[in-house]
């Protein structure tokens, strides 16, 4: 199992998985899946311009807590 250091890392992980999945689906299933990839790109631009990230809002409502990298204990 892997440890995600917080909400921001989880958002990047989920977005990466969604983009990769939509590219694969557009190649294997139907080309219209590329519109989903475009939507994700649009939402990334929207988030950077406005500071509002719907994925972060959904994760917050789901109970995912922000963890700072310094707060994580290391196994020594």
Automatic annotation (TrEMBL):
UniProt domain Inner membrane protein YgaP-like transmembrane: residue ranges: 4-61
Keywords in alphabetical order: Membrane, Transmembrane, Transmembrane helix
The UniProt record lists the keyword NAD: no
The keyword Metal-binding is assigned to this record: no
Highest taxon in the source lineage: Bacteria
Name the record gives this protein: DUF2892 domain-containing protein
Cited InterPro entries: YgaP-like_TM
TM region positions: 9-27, 33-53
């Amino acid at each position: 199992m892997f440890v995600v250091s917080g909400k921001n890392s989880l958002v990047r992980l989920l977005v990466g998985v969604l983009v990769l999945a939509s590219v694969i689906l557009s190649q294997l299933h139907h080309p219209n899946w590329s519109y989903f990839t475009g939507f994700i790109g649009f939402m990334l631009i929207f988030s950077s311009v406005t500071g509002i990230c719907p994925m972060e809002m959904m994760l917050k409502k789901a109970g995912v807590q922000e963890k700072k990298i310094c707060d994580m204990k290391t196994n020594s």
